[in-house]
Amino acid sequence: MENTQLLELANKYGSPLYVYDTDKIASQYNRLTDAFSDVKNLKLNYAVKALSNINILKFFKNLGAGLDTVSHQEVQLGLTTGIDPKKIIFTPNGVSLQEIEEVAKLGVQINIDNLSILEQFGQKYPDIPVCIRINPHIMAGGNSKISVGHIDSKFGISIHQVPHIKRVVENTGMNINGIHMHTGSDILDIDTFLRATEILFDVAKQFDNIDFIDFGSGFKVPYKEGDISTDIEQLGLQLSERFNQFCEEYGKDLTLMFEPGKFLVSEAGVFLAKVNVVKQTTSTVFAHVDSGFNHLVRPMMYNSYHNITNISNPKGRDRYYSVVGYICETDTFGSNRRISEISEEDVLCFHNAGAYCFSMASNYNSRYLPAEVMLVNGQDYLIRKRQTIQDILHNQEEVELPKNLSEEVTV
């Protein structure tokens, strides 16, 4: 996406604005499938939570991907695309038995991450195949908030509780058709990831009728020049060989599954925001944009780095700015960033904004959610309209308040 094109989109659709390039999504998808081309049965389930616009889901359906979902609502979004329910896996955490039952009725693959629900579900629905999420007790991920496979994590059933899982299976007669793990996001060390896969292989061989092993995802993408990312090609070489060897030992051609989200859409997305005010203090120059952590919370929540460029003046003299938002709390996107000189009304581009950006946005401060645009073969399509005050008021019920506290409230 060139600066001139992005500026045209900002002028056409207004700001703030999310833009997604499907060419980049497709290239990342193909890169992952190519890396594991030696595996006979490979299935990629896109992690819906990363970016859940139904047009993005349709694009993944057309690529041949399945969907990884974590809520009943994400399942419903996926089904609106016409995708086969059998190509959707449901991997919630700590949800009620009722929600799992509702999803199971839709024909979706169920993945259970705790012994209590596993036993209850097995007693009621022994004929419905179930995958088990294992906690391998491996610390992997960019920071503690996105590392989910360690010993103190709330996710998955501990590897030390596998005997309990087997007892539940024996008592209920339920069918375990898959084994799953997810160690965390922003994985740098593939050796750590491979150690976790060996733990999963050890668990898998204790069950006789599994059809697939799901290794999760969490592959890291670069956020700035020189940044380290997951070596997908090397991981593909090593894990493919080991997986094929395990299939021979197991006596069956299993399916190798991943559930990538950030790897597929992060670099495909940018966020455009207009500069409202340039403010000089005694020590800092602030560039205030028409957005805040209501639209892009990752820098504040995860201390995540997003490269910021001035696409209105890309060849200007570099200066140092702290880019901040308009929320009534500290919402700093980047401190002391070297950016080409910024003037009011300039458009700033936040890179790597495809994953966990719009999907984590809110109406905090009663601000509207941004619009979303998708590029397909260079053609732009509006895939989410900008909100209005009617959207903010929608579902709010106005009541007639009593003139004094003794009166009853009536709708």
Task: Describe the model.
It is built from twelve helices and 18 strands. The longest helix is centred in the middle third of the chain and has 19 residues. The protein starts with a helix and ends in an 18-residue tail after the last helix. Strands 1, 11, 12, 13, 14, 15, 16, 17 and 18 form a nine-stranded mixed β-sheet that branches. It has an eight-stranded parallel beta barrel with strand order 2-3-4-5-6-8-9-10, surrounded by five helices. The protein has two domains: 225 residues, Alanine racemase (TIM Barrel), CATH 3.20.20.10; 125 residues, Lyase, Ornithine Decarboxylase, Chain A, domain 1. About 3% of the residues have low confidence. Helix 2 crosses helix 9. It is globular. The chain is of the alpha/beta class. One of its GO terms (molecular function) is pyridoxal phosphate binding. It catalyses: meso-2,6-diaminopimelate + H(+) = L-lysine + CO2. InterPro entries: Ala_racemase/Decarboxylase_C, DAP_deCOOHase_LysA, De-COase2_C, De-COase2_N, Orn/DAP/Arg_de-COase, PLP-binding_barrel. Pfam families: Orn_Arg_deC_N (PF02784), Orn_DAP_Arg_deC (PF00278). Keywords: Amino-acid biosynthesis, Decarboxylase, Lyase, Lysine biosynthesis, Pyridoxal phosphate.
